[in-house]
């Protein structure tokens, strides 16, 4: 979390940090009223059929994801969840900590970030700052710029 906050402060990005007990589900976040503070996203770390391409999908927490439809929208082979080992290797994160801030750890810049188009224009999106014991709320445009500046490819789709 400290690296994420340092990044935000070094880049003069306005944010709200809410520290809270560890959460594992959207229901856990709802119990803590975290969903009321902004557009809270779910984030999925995925891989293609042969495991050579990895994707980070970010969308509103209420959206249902159908893997077969998603693979067609991003022009990929069959998608599945990436293993904890792959998550650690590519984003240096543990299960439950996945967020766009993990892209800052993607040294080879090969993880493709897939954003639902509904995120565009959101003034207060919520993501974990690489830990599930806090949530950071900030404008989507700042998250988008962070990923562009880091050098990872971004795809926009409609879910």
In short:
With 159 residues, this protein is of the alpha/beta class. It has helices at residues 2-10, 26-31, 67-73, 84-91, 140-150, and strands spanning 16-19, 39-47, 54-60, 80-81, 112-116, 125-127, 134-138, 154-157.
Helix and strand layout, with pairings?
Layout: H1 2-10, E1 16-19, H2 26-31, E2 39-47, E3 54-60, H3 67-73, E4 80-81, H4 84-91, E5 112-116, E6 125-127, E7 134-138, H5 140-150, E8 154-157
Parallel strand pairs: 2-6, 3-5, 5-8
Antiparallel strand pairs: 1-7, 2-3, 2-4, 6-7
**Whole-number mean pLDDT:** 95
Q: What coarse outline follows from CA principal-axis ratios?
A: globular
Helix content: 25-40%
Task: Kindly report how far apart the N and C termini lie.
Answer: 29 Å
What is the radius of gyration computed over CA atoms, rounded to a whole number of angstroms? 15 Å
> CATH homologous superfamily name?
YbaK/aminoacyl-tRNA synthetase-associated domain
What is the number of independent domains? 1
Task: Kindly describe this structure.
- With 159 residues, this protein is of the alpha/beta class.
- The protein has a single domain (2-157), classed as YbaK/aminoacyl-tRNA synthetase-associated domain (YbaK protein, Alpha-Beta Complex), CATH 3.90.960.
- 26% of the residues lie in helices and 25% in strands.
- The chain has five helices and eight strands.
- Strands 1, 2, 3, 4, 5, 6, 7 and 8 form an eight-stranded mixed β-sheet that branches.
- The protein starts with a helix and ends with a strand.
